[in-house]
Structure formats: C-alpha cells, structure tokens
Design a protein that fits this description.
Helix 1 crosses helix 2 and helix 2 packs antiparallel against helix 3. It is built from six helices and nine strands. Strand 4 and strand 5 form a beta hairpin. The chain has two domains: about 70 residues, no CATH class; about 120 residues. The chain is α+β, with helices and mostly antiparallel strands and about 200 residues long. The model has no long low-confidence stretch (mean pLDDT about 90). It starts with 12 loop residues before the first helix and ends with a helix.
C-alpha cells in the first residue's frame, strides 16, 4: 500500500513556485511510463503516491492554498486515489477540444464504467470505478478507478516475465472497442508500485 500523504510531504508554496518549471518537466517525463493512450480521445494514467502528491501540490499552487485545514481536506480527498496493496489505481480521461463534440462523445460512452478491464496473462480484471453515472444520459470526462489484482496477476506483473506475456487494457463498450497493450516501461513502472 502506498504510504499516506500528509501536509509535511508538501513543499511550501513559495518554494514550489520557484522550482515548478523543472518539477513539471520531471513529472511529464515520469508520467510517460504511466500514461496509456486508449485511442484518440481517451487515456489512462496509472496513479501512485508520486502522481497523487503532484496533483495536490499543483492544486495548492493553482488555488493559492496555504490554509492547513484546507490542505488537509484536499489531501484527504485525493488520498483515495492511492493504490492499496493488491490493486492498481488510475484516472481515465476522455478529452476533446471541441465542447460540442465532447458532449456527444460523453453521451456515446455512457456506461463506460461497466466496460473497462486490465488483462494480465490469462486473467481479465474488471475496473472498479469510484462513481457510476447510471442516473444521467452521459458519462463524465474524468473517472477515478482501481483494478483489484489477484495474487497471480500481482506476481505476473512483478516477476519480470511481462516481456513475453500479455498485459493490456481492454475497453469493450458497445460504441467503442479498444485493446491497448502495455509496453515494458509501463509494466516496469507498475511493478515498482507493487514491489
């Protein structure tokens, strides 16, 4: 399980702002082995302590947050994205520049929460979404989710045999079917999280 994030993990806002450009470049590089494109408009970012801490730090920067109580509230909210011992955590993004086209896409992908899987070897593991949107005619553009791992899947990801085996994300929505393999860099990054 990822170590909990506390306020002491955050860099003071003035210090963060001084080094932000360099930190952003490092995070862009770091996320390359954690982001998976599932097509033109959809991507999946595998989250861990480092990516979640970055999001909190960026939120503090953009919202000009310095109040300890407010920071603790956001830390509490975002900490739900940290993966547990036997799971992978991810954020699913559905993005399109044109707002009208995005609205149509989100309506077409209603129910996506029932159609996302991680295949590890012969096992097909269903994503568990933080929220399901059955009560409306569209889905949202950002989803937080977890992939619960069996012992076999976890061992498969951490034992280094992935170079010769199958690890992929499968989206089998009636309006969009995509299968995207994880490359060796993706799996190596996830294996570090699970070690």
């Amino acid at each position: 399980m990822a170590t909990a994030i506390t306020r002491s993990d955050l860099v003071a806002l003035s210090t963060y702002r001084q080094g932000r450009d360099e930190y952003l470049q490092k995070m862009i590089q770091y996320k390359k082995s954690r982001r998976l494109k599932l097509g033109q408009d959809i991507s999946l970012l595998f989250e861990n302590r480092q990516t979640v801490l970055f999001q909190i730090q960026e939120l503090a920067h953009s919202e000009d947050l310095t109040d300890p109580k407010e920071l603790d509230e956001y830390i509490d909210i975002y900490s739900g994205m940290l993966p547990g011992d036997d799971e992978l955590s991810a954020t699913l993004f559905i993005e399109r520049d044109n707002q009208e086209e995005l609205s149509k896409l989100l309506a077409n992908l209603k129910g996506i929460e029932q159609h996302l899987f991680l295949q590890v070897g012969d096992e097909k593991l269903k994503a568990v979404f933080e929220e399901e949107h059955d009560d409306r005619e569209f889905t949202t553009s950002v989803h937080y989710l977890k992939f619960p791992l069996t012992g076999t899947a976890k061992a498969y990801l951490t034992n280094g045999s992935y170079e010769h085996e199958t690890v992929r994300v499968i989206l089998d929505h009636p309006n969009l079917q995509v299968t995207t393999p994880l490359d060796a860099d993706h799996v190596a990054s996830l294996a570090k999280d699970l070690a």
